[in-house]
Amino acid sequence: MNNVNVKTFPTGRSPKGKFFFGENTIKLCRDRPKDVQIGNISDYEQFASKMKLLDYEYKSMFRTCGIDFNVATTSENHDKFIRNMFRYTAINSIPSLTNDWTIYHNMELESNPCVYINLDKKEVLIAGTSFFGEIKKCVFTIIGYSMPLEGRFPMHCSAFEYNDNTALIFGLSGTGKTTLSADPEYQLIGDDEIVWDETGLTYVEAGCYAKTEGLNRETQPTIFQAMDNAREQGLLIEENITEPNARSSYPIECVPNAITDKELFNHPKDVFFLALDATGT
Question: Angle CA(230)–CA(231)–CA(232) in degrees, nearest 5?
Answer without folding.
Answer: 90
